[in-house]
Design a protein that fits this description.
Distance between the termini: 20 Å
Number of helices: 6
Number of strands: 3
Strand order of the largest sheet: 1-2-3
Helix content: 25-40%
Largest sheet: 3 strands, antiparallel
Bound molecules: FE2/S2 (inorganic) cluster
CATH architecture: Alpha-Beta Complex
CATH topology: Sufe protein. Chain: A
Structural class: alpha+beta
CATH class: Alpha Beta
Strand content: 15-25%
Radius of gyration: 14 Å
Length: about 150
């Protein structure tokens, strides 16, 4: 792994649930079963609705955490349309190329982002991926704590 990924794993940005979020999205990976949830808050900027900030929780691997950390920074200030156009590759680009077996980790982040921006409906990241969002619906309280 590159140093940049290592750094993002050591000190992930925007980690944790956001209270008062405008949008929430969840995606699950059919490749490994990992899941990721993203919260988004919008703001008005000169009459345009843009992403003010985003946070995430990962029920998954460290690469997904690194990409989500990067992605939640990259989408700040973008309109929902602009963010919708970003691929997993775009969202992970500053981390450098991902190994082939980790490309789906970036797609997991893309899936959660797109799911949030399209109203939080179930959005599997790959056509073959099972819909895992339902199993993530809070029953009681489920919290993952990172140390
Ligand atoms: Fe599956 Fe990273 S190994 S999300």
């Amino acid at each position: 792994m590159s140093n940049t990924i290592d750094e993002a794993i050591r000190d992930p940005k925007n980690l944790g649930e956001m209270t008062g979020a405008d949008a929430v999205g969840t995606a699950g990976s059919g490749d490994c079963g990992d899941m990721l949830r993203m919260w988004i808050k919008f703001r008005d900027e000169g009459g345009r609705r843009v992403i003010d900030r985003a946070t995430f929780q990962s029920f998954g691997c460290q690469t997904a955490i690194a990409v989500a950390s990067m992605a939640t920074e990259l989408i700040k200030g973008k309109t929902p349309q602009e963010a919708m156009e970003m691929s997993g590759e775009d969202l992970s680009a500053p981390l450098g190329p991902l190994p082939p077996m980790k490309i789906h980790c970036a797609q997991l982040v893309e899936g959660a982002l797109k799911n949030a921006l399209t109203g939080g409906e179930a959005a599997p990241v790959a056509p073959s991926a099972p819909v895992l969002a339902d199993s993530l619906q809070p029953k009681g309280s489920v919290k993952i704590t990172f140390r």
